[in-house]
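Budget justification aside, the reviewers requested a transparent look at the raw inputs and outputs of the sequence design task funded under Objective 1. We therefore reproduce one unedited record. The lines immediately below are the structure tokens for a 97-residue chain.
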């Protein structure tokens, strides 16, 4: 069995959701690290409020959106290239049970 065609928007949509979840996880880690003051200690700042606190909170919102958009674009390009090359190269063989 060979995969000869990949739905461009179908793959882009799936990858966008997966990357959004990944971006949320990375954003949550960055948010936690910024709340602990780790980034302010690394920058040498000595203030009452860590300067990167706003970035940490924003990372939970911004990173999932950025990851989803970039992931969808890259997946759409990859699917389009796969479809263009599958006719010439024969596609990918898959063994299903």
């Amino acid at each position: 069995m060979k995969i000869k065609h990949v739905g461009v928007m179908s793959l882009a949509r799936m990858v966008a959701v997966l990357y959004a979840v990944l971006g949320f996880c990375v954003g949550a880690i960055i948010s936690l690290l910024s709340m602990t003051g780790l980034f302010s200690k690394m920058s040498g700042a000595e203030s009452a409020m860590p300067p990167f606190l706003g970035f940490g909170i924003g990372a939970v919102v911004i990173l999932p959106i950025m990851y989803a958009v970039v992931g969808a674009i890259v997946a759409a390009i990859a699917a389009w290239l796969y479809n263009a090359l599958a006719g010439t190269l024969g596609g990918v063989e898959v063994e299903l049970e």
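The beta strands are 2-3, 92-93. The two ends are 11 Å apart (CA to CA). Computational costs for records of this kind are itemized in the attached budget.
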